[in-house]
Amino acid sequence: MSALATIRTQVEARLTGRMPTAFVQHQRAPRHTLPTGIDDMDRQIGGIPFGALTELVAASWTSSGQKSLQTLLLARATQEHVCALIDATDSFDPKSAHALGVSLCRLLWVRCSGRDMKGLEQAFQCADLLLQASSDSD
User: Fold this and answer.
1) What was the pLDDT predicted at 64?
2) Which class would CATH give 32-137?
3) I want to staple 103 with a disulfide (CB 3.0 to 4.6 A). Which of 52, 68, 74, 78 is the partner?
């Protein structure tokens, strides 16, 4: 038995009497997901989960297709669902998004005030408010 396995066994043995459910593995309920329409991505991640935060991040100096992916996902999601977009960099273009199929009447677009730490702070505050509203409606 490796040293790590030995330590884990000892820790579990000492905590089992005090916290009987500490090492019980709980089954998560399956999440409903929205397929991205990109077969490789859907195989890897299973789609974008409903009722969850999804963050798209790319280096600013790359042409990674981040905005194209964002628009594709919003177009697919807003056909049947209401979505929220927290735009931390104030870079969302509603005209081009609408032209590519995003239903703007089903999109809550939160524009943050720029590319500095203030915009990031606003984005976190907005995400927190959306999560609180989501948990209140459950």
Assistant:
1) 67
2) alpha beta
3) 78
